[in-house]
Design the sequence.
């Protein structure tokens, strides 16, 4: 691994990465707002930012000097995979210069009938020096992604695929098994909702952890509070 990538991994090690995302149907959907969200996260001690779309990433770059885990969410009619699903999204992220590029690494078939192994082989050949993060939903997918050559293994999709729906989240058992067995740095991501859960994930030996909704989605946070009133 080159020195640049080693430095990036060192910069996020043991810390909190904050996911600053708002989809078009969400009230905070705005690249400017996401840049301010990233600034607030940075001021609060975040070591990195996870962001969606070239527009948001470009705006966040103007505001904070932290490593960015970049994704592009794009839906295609022939696949359930929507996190950086094709080379078009990979190229766009590479052109805007993300430190870590994340993509769906589930067993589901990608657009145009492609398997992850086939697709990632092409991506790695095209961008041999880039750090890639695998967004997985199961321990098996994490192990497979590590063998394929992903640099970082994430638990992002646990509970979000049809075959993992209903599982206990955060998936501490999956995190622990991957830390012990996959041979690559593991990033705990997905449904970490409290500081205590973050501490638990870090104590299991993950490289770092990503928290999103619990910090950056005020609509969801408000709904949690109003649900108590409705009861």
Sequence:
């Amino acid at each position: 691994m080159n020195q640049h990538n080693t430095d990036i991994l060192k910069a996020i090690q043991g810390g909190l990465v904050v996911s600053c995302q708002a989809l078009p149907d969400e009230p905070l959907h705005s690249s400017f707002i996401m840049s301010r969200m990233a600034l607030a996260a940075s001021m609060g001690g975040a070591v990195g930012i996870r962001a969606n779309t070239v527009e948001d990433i470009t705006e966040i770059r103007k505001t904070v000097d932290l490593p960015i885990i970049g994704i592009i969410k794009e839906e295609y009619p022939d696949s359930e995979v929507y996190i950086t699903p094709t080379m078009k999204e990979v190229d766009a992220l590479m052109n805007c210069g993300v430190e870590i590029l994340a993509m769906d690494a589930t067993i589901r078939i990608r657009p145009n009938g492609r398997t992850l192994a086939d697709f990632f082989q092409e991506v790695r050949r095209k961008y041999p020096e880039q750090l890639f993060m695998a967004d997985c939903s199961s321990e098996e997918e994490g192990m497979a992604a590590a063998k394929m050559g992903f640099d970082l293994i994430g638990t992002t999709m646990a509970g979000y695929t049809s075959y993992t729906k209903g599982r206990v989240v955060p998936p501490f058992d999956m995190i622990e098994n991957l830390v012990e067995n996959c041979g690559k740095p593991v990033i705990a991501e997905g449904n970490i909702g409290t500081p205590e859960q973050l501490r638990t994930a870090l104590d299991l030996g993950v490289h770092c952890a990503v928290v999103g909704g619990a910090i950056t989605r005020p609509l969801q946070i408000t709904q949690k509070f109003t649900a108590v009133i409705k009861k």
Observations:
- Residues 109 and 115 are 5 Å apart (CA to CA).
- The chain has a mean pLDDT of 97.
